[in-house]
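User: I'll paste a sequence; please echo it back and then give the predicted structure.

Assistant: Echoing your sequence first, then the prediction.
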Amino acid sequence: MTVDDRIAVNDLIHEYGHLVDAGELDRLAELFTADVTHDLIDFGQGTLTGVAAIRSAALALGEANPVGHHVTNIVLTEQADGRVRARSKGIGIMADGTTGSVLYDDLIVRRDGTWRISHRKIVARRAPLGGVPR
């Protein structure tokens, strides 16, 4: 990956929070491939396929959506086939001020010269130290 690619992929991941928090769900195709897989199994939501399904799920969640999605700790790993695996941490701020932490595990592809997320798995962080007893 070039430096420009790394910047573009980082910007792609960060842009998610800006679009969702602004309610610009019609712009999700700027971030995801049309056939994206969005794994929400850890939240009891199953797996969504396609941008329209992600948009519909966000609209159905309504007021229960976080008001702030903040991404940090992005680590990019180039795969042998040219795809990029991105692992990052997410902090969600709810309207009542409560917060939550998640792990985003993304597979990012380049199509027509543009980077897009083709698979996203979101896992809630519910226990310190990964839940491993010490």
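The beta strands are 32-39, 47-49, 68-78, 84-93, 99-111, 114-125. The mean pLDDT is 95.
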